[in-house]
Design a protein that fits this description.
By secondary structure, this protein is mainly beta. 4% of the residues lie in helices and 59% in strands. It has a single domain, classed as Lipocalin, CATH 2.40.128.
Length: 316
């Protein structure tokens, strides 16, 4: 694909800069299961030329104390979870600002064992998870630029906000405790700030997830959950040939649950640690390998996971 750039830049320099920037667009999607109460998503703030499109496919495997709905009051949980996703993202102009729209459709298969109110419970199930759609807008340091304007763009600081909506489209059986879908809506606003320092990018994010009620929890019971908040930090290092690596960390807290108005001892407090490696292959293709571990402090998931993601990009 030929890409027109302004004449004052050489074709080689322009292509190198352009590829280096767009390669990070796929990192909006990371192991999209809602079981990761605070997803680690390095480079979500990166600015892209208006009109860029990304098709993404991914696979992940996790083992440990992990649920697709973090509100479930299950004890002594052990699970093995295979998850896959397809996703689409497009960079857009929103009131003159740079923005992105992305949609994620997850599928999962898992085996769970655990206890609920002292009674052993287990399940093996496969099916679709809850779909996600997100709108992101960068309001500082990331103007909405066409592809021919992009080679002259040199970011130093970027700040932006996003709103992700999780729809109750996943597999759900009201007679079973463990499901792939949550049977409720969730909304996650997020604010982020990134600082560029030579070959490094340092990012910080603050987010809170709000939940609607599940009015059909185990044969018609009502499940309600308080908001869940997260703080995330990423340190990203770029290397020659457009490779990059990110060290990821996050802390999540809150999300106490109530069943029929009765408070459960379920306040979530967890740490996430991750390592992400991006490997470009040719002009339009990128693979990303991610490892992550979850550490439970009070309640929440405690697990190890790996993920492989592939992306293809085009622009028009």
């Amino acid at each position: 694909m030929s890409i027109p750039f302004r004449n004052k830049y050489t074709i080689g320099k322009s292509l190198y800069f352009f590829i280096r920037v767009i390669l990070v667009g796929f990192s909006i999607f990371y192991f999209s299961s809602s079981s990761l109460a605070q997803e680690l998503e390095p480079r979500s703030l990166t600015n892209l030329p208006v009109g860029m499109n990304f098709a993404i496919a991914g696979y992940s495997y996790a083992q440990g104390n992990i649920l697709l709905d973090p509100a479930l009051p299950i004890e002594d949980l052990n699970a093995k979870l295979h998850a896959a996703l397809i996703a689409y993202m497009r960079s857009v102009r929103i009131f003159g600002l740079a923005g992105k729209v992305d949609v994620v459709l997850p599928w999962a298969s898992g085996d769970w064992t655990g206890k609920y109110t002292g009674i052993d419970t287990s399940r093996s199930v496969a099916g679709m998870g809850d779909a996600r759609i997100r709108l992101s807008i960068n309001f500082l340091g990331a103007p909405a630029l066409k592809k021919e304007e992009f080679p002259g763009y040199n970011p130093t600081k970027i700040s932006g906000i996003s709103l992700q909506i999780m729809a109750p489209t996943g597999q759900y059986d009201y007679e079973r405790l463990i499901n792939l879908g949550s049977n409720r809506w969730a909304f996650r606003p997020q604010w982020g700030f990134s600082r560029y320092i030579k070959n490094w990018i340092v990012e910080t994010y603050l987010s809170t997830r709000f939940f609607t009620k599940n009015n059909n929890f185990l044969d018609g019971n009502e499940l309600r959950q308080k908001p869940f908040s997260a703080i995330k930090v990423h340190a990203i290092r770029s290397f020659p040939r457009n490779w990059w690596i990110a060290l990821d960390a996050g802390y999540g807290f809150g999300g106490k649950t109530f069943v029929n108005g009765e408070e459960r001892d379920s306040r979530i407090s967890t740490i996430r640690l991750g390592l992400t490696l991006a490997i470009p292959v040719g002009m339009h293709h990128t693979f990303r390998l991610t490892g992550i571990t979850g550490i439970r402090l009070e309640r929440g998931s405690d697990f190890d996971a790996v993920a492989l993601t592939y992306q293809y990009w085009w622009i028009k």
